[in-house]
């Protein structure tokens, strides 16, 4: 295929006249490049000092597969809509990790989780983690003049978590977000959170069982399950948070209709995977997706409002369940960007007096 055609066919937009602006990039973070076991106590050693270990956060790989599997031609997959667990169990697990973290790192029971989370990522950077944008942990408060207050925290690799409790103050919301992010950061270093050959085989087998597939499909890169296997094997050695950050791009492309449009342009699955596996989610991609929603709104009124309402429910459920939030939050941000584009277009067409 000529190079001049390739970028146009691999655009995230679904074809409403947007020009080709996509470029091949290698800007995804390869993750930790040296073992960081000496950095912090392992989850197992943390738990040893405070009773039974809390359950590690779920891998959530099935919902990730639903996005890329369906988007690459497998058919309907898991939507990723979260099912909040028992809030008391989640709170107990988070508090157990924070208490153990305090004992192992500072020698006393009380810990400033906001400082601890920043220190965790700073130590990863110091010990060799490849964090392209540095180790800064970023907090974002949801504007509100009264409780409950909500805070999101974005980790250096892009993963996002949010306050998972009722928070009467902004400071408490910030601490709540830091707690769930710290727990996930700690557990992400556990060997069970690395993509290995055994992990790949188990995940593919579960996908085959869930979608009534057969082994031949898993070995064929032109099938949805084969593409899923290809993604896992391409990311062997990475942690689940690193893999989830990559998969967020494909989830958004699927949600936006872009993967379907690429299939219609005769792009192969391998071609799409190879291109977007090396492209970070950036402002250009968000702007193109927002423009697609503007066009949908102009075709069918209230399309954006309905999608915003649905996305806000998903985001709320995922936040209260203590799940990783970037997919839901990026969806909402893209939709809000679309609202801004729509308002700007409407203002520009108003008659002047």
UniProtKB/TrEMBL annotation:
One of this protein's Pfam families, by short name? LIX1
Q: Which InterPro entries match?
A: Autophagy-related_EPG5, LIX1
For region Disordered, the annotated ranges are: 1-22
Q: Which domain of life is it from?
A: Eukaryota
Q: Which GO terms describe its biological process?
A: autophagosome maturation
One GO cellular component assignment for this chain's record is: cytoplasm
Q: Which family does it belong to?
A: Belongs to the LIX1 family.
What is the designated name of this protein? Limb and CNS expressed 1 like
Please give the organism: Sander lucioperca
């Amino acid at each position: 295929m000529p190079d001049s055609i390739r970028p146009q066919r691999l655009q995230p937009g679904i074809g409403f006249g947007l020009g080709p602006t996509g470029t091949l990039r290698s800007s995804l973070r390869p993750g930790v490049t040296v073992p960081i076991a000496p950095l912090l106590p392992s989850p197992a050693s943390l738990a040893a000092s405070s009773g039974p270990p809390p359950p590690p956060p779920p891998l959530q790989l099935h919902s990730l597969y639903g996005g890329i599997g369906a988007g690459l031609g497998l058919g309907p997959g898991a939507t990723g809509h979260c099912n909040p667990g028992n809030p008391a169990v989640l709170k107990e697990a988070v508090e157990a990790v924070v208490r153990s973290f305090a004992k192992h790192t500072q020698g006393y029971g009380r810990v400033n989780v906001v400082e601890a989370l920043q220190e965790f990522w700073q130590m990863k950077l110091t010990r060799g983690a490849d964090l392209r944008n540095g180790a800064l942990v970023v907090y974002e408060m949801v504007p509100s003049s009264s409780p409950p207050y909500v805070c999101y925290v974005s980790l250096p690799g892009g993963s996002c978590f949010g306050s998972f409790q009722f928070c009467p103050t902004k400071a408490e919301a910030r601490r709540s977000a830091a707690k769930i992010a710290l727990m996930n950061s700690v557990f992400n270093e556990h060997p069970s959170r690395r993509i290995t050959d055994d992990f790949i085989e188990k995940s593919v087998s579960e996908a085959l069982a869930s979608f009534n597939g057969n082994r031949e499909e898993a070995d064929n890169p032109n099938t949805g399950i084969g593409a899923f296997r290809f993604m896992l094997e391409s990311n062997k050695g990475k942690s689940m948070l690193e893999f989830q950050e990559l998969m967020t791009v494909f989830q958004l492309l699927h949600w936006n209709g872009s993967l379907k449009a690429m299939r219609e342009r005769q792009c192969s699955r391998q071609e799409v995977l190879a291109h977007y596996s090396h492209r970070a989610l950036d402002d250009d991609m968000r702007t193109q997706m927002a423009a697609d929603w503007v066009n949908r709104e102009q075709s069918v009124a209230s399309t954006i409002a309905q999608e915003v309402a649905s996305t806000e429910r998903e985001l709320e459920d995922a936040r209260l369940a203590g799940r990783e939030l970037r997919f839901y939050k990026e969806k909402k941000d893209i939709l809000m960007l679309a609202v801004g584009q729509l308002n700007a277009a409407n203002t520009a067409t108003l008659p002047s007096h």
